[in-house]
Amino acid sequence: QLERLAAANPQKLNWKTSIVDLLKLLDIDSSFAARKEMAVELGCPADLMGDSAKMNVWLHKTVLARIAANGGNVPPELLD
Q: CA-to-CA distance for 78 and 75, rounded, in angstroms?
């Protein structure tokens, strides 16, 4: 479904590597404040919270893992 959403989206979203683009694809607030709040809610380790790049990578992998855990078909290479 993510591929279908991406194909239908007028923006070229790099959702496979970008948490901002993944959230845009899912029509979720992708602002830094929203991502930080989501990271806290999902249990991001405190040592990653001070580095936005590391937090974003963690958040991207965690959101994809949650999608997969809830029945989403996520390519295995995106879950590593």
A: 6
